[in-house]
Amino acid sequence: MLENGYSMAMNLPSTDKHDRRIERTKHALLDAFLHLFFESGYEAMTVSDIATRAGVGRSTFYEHYKCKEALLAESFQRPLGMVASVVDAVTSRDAESLRFQLEHFWQNRGKSRLLQATKARRAMARILAAMIHERLIARDRTSGARTNKFGASLTAVAIAEFLLGTITAWLGGDVICDAPTFAENLRDLTQRMIATDATAGYCPEQIRAMSS
User: Fold this and answer.
1) How many Cβ atoms sit within 10 Å of the Cβ of residue 147?
2) Of 9, 10, 52, 133, which has the fewest CB atoms closer than 10 Å, so is most exposed?
């Protein structure tokens, strides 16, 4: 296997070098973004700041990322993905990923203020809502249920805002409980939001059409 891998690398030197260069550039941009995020905050940083910190030009930045929100999404994909997993947490045992992430948030709660700035908060909500929306659609597909796109989008936004708001309140000391208890309550409330009656999330015109 080692010989075959080495042979492939020898046969495709330009492609291999190109891929490694792309990965190095993306890593440099991600690293620069995170440093600036924790130093000055999301709102204060600009694309030029990120590119300069990474040692690349603005044009190089745009070759890899559409905007700084795309970097935010990639940087926080794992923690936000664990929060979004609450959509699939039908039982208490299923909420383990959420509990783990909440404990990590708690240990680093001093940095949570950086996520509360207006633009960062809105961006996080959009990213989390998109993740939740994908899970809601997949959930309907698996169960064979009819998917209402408007309803799924509305529910995803509502759940994302609910989760971010309550997690922020918990980290700020407005909600007093340990991570396992908090995770279980978030799971229960999220599942209740998902399990609302069939017309929840439909616009009035759709409801009238369904009942006619």
Assistant:
1) 13
2) 10
